[in-house]
Write a structure and sequence with these properties.
This protein is of the alpha+beta class. It folds into two domains: 76 residues; 73 residues, Regulator of K+ conductance, C-terminal domain (Alpha-Beta Plaits), CATH 3.30.70. Helix content is 26%, strand content 35%. The chain contains five helices and nine strands. The strands form two sheets. The chain has a five-stranded antiparallel beta sheet with strand order 1-2-3-4-5.
Amino acid sequence: MDIYETPLPGIGVRYEFQADSGDHVGVVVRRDGKRDFALYDRDDPDSCRGTVELSEGDSAKLAELLGGTSITARLESLRHNVEGLAIEWITMPSAGGLTGQTIADGKIRTETSASVVAIIRGETGLPGPGPDFVFEPGDTVLVMGSASAVRQATAILTR
């Protein structure tokens, strides 16, 4: 089965395939961990017949029911292309941690050697935020570094 992958900057990645029945099926894996399941119109592949938003838990249940782990395994292998590199998406809390403070305030790079490489705020992707960037509740923060550095950075961001 051919699965087509399309990066959606600031949103996530869309995976699509054509079912044996002829239906065109898609799943958007969003940066916030949610999934959007879409069934496209057979006559107009640019038009959706319907979508369903799934939480991470819902997605895991559906995958278990369908008996498939190959996409999950593929996503994990893509995530670990560089040996020793950890990548984590962290949701900023409504209060505490670095919410309402700047990247510089957290001294993440200095204290942990991890890097804040991007922020997702609502539907907007903000790559390469500077030291004066102020975190807001609900921001999704992309942190990269060694596994221990990412754990330490997560603690600083959310404590």
